């Protein structure tokens, strides 16, 4: 097979892979981020402690994560057909890819959020902040570098999943490698496909690591943590002032809005 014959195949396969991985990543973030945060909030000692709910969600996530992706695709064929009308093609592949990635990303989010300093959560609570304020002002911003790294890991995993999806007619680079590289003995095309996947994964990993390091440095210099500690330090002094009890009681609630 000549390069002029390979080029259109590789271009279409690369676009199909990016399409599947892109949409699956978006769905995984939308579904996995709140799920991971909920696992932290409902855990023992969490802001919304609920042991039963936490164990139920945790078991569902564990079972979904432990299932091999190729088996998950087969198990979800009926569900996929009910949504997309077919079980082959890139649109159909997005369904199992997203469902497989949501619990994976949720566990990564849970790990990232647990790393946030508990003192910052207490600082917001002492200033009258509710659970939503804690999540929006502390948990997500302070864990953002780790969340970026988690997203990068998820994208890389989804690229591998998409290659497996290609074996059952989903298209993409995995499909090219199997149909042409393996079944038709086009070894050169197969290795070109492998090289493209390696380059794409390396670029994604580099961009993700660079963004995570940049956010980490920025957070250390001008993030919410220093302001929260400063506001918490001022709160006791204000509350102990004589003759100004009413304004002091209102000050902490107003101070929460300054943390951003």
From TrEMBL:
Coiled-coil region: none
GO terms (BP aspect): D-methionine transmembrane transport
Regions crossing the membrane: 20-41, 62-80, 146-169, 189-208
InterPro entries cross-referenced by the UniProt entry: AA_ABC_Transporter_Permease, MetI-like, MetI-like_sf
Pfam families per the UniProt record, alphabetical: BPD_transp_1
Domain ABC transmembrane type-1: start-end pairs: 14-212
A GO CC annotation given for this chain: plasma membrane
Keywords attached to this entry: Cell membrane, Membrane, Transmembrane, Transmembrane helix, Transport
SUPFAM superfamilies from the UniProt entry: MetI-like
Family: Belongs to the binding-protein-dependent transport system permease family. CysTW subfamily.
Name used for this protein in its record: ABC transporter permease
Source organism: Streptomyces flaveus
């Amino acid at each position: 097979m000549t390069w002029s014959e390979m080029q259109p195949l590789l271009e279409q396969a690369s676009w199909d892979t990016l399409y599947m991985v892109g949409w699956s990543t978006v769905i995984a973030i939308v579904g996995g981020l709140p799920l991971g945060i909920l696992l932290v909030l409902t855990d023992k000692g969490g802001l919304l402690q609920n042991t039963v709910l936490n164990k139920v969600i945790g078991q569902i996530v564990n079972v979904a994560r432990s299932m091999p992706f190729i088996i998950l695709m087969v198990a979800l064929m009926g569900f996929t057909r009910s949504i997309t009308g077919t079980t082959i093609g890139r649109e159909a592949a997005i369904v199992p890819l997203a469902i497989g990635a949501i619990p994976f990303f949720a566990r990564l989010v849970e790990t990232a959020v647990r790393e946030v300093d508990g003192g910052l959560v207490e600082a917001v609570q002492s200033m009258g902040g509710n659970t939503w304020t804690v999540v929006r002002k502390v948990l997500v911003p302070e864990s953002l570098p780790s969340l970026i790294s988690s997203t990068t890991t998820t994208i890389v995993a989804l690229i591998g999943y998409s290659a497996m999806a290609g074996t059952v007619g989903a298209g993409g680079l995995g499909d090219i490698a199997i149909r042409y590289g393996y079944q038709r003995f086009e070894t050169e095309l197969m290795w070109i496909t492998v090289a493209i996947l390696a380059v794409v994964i390396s670029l994604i990993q580099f961009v993700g690591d660079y963004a995570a390091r940049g956010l980490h440095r920025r957070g250390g210099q001008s993030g919410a943590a220093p302001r929260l500690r400063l506001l918490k330090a001022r709160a006791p002094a204000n509350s102990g002032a004589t003759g100004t009890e009413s304004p002091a009681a209102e000050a902490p609630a107003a101070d929460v809005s300054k943390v951003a």
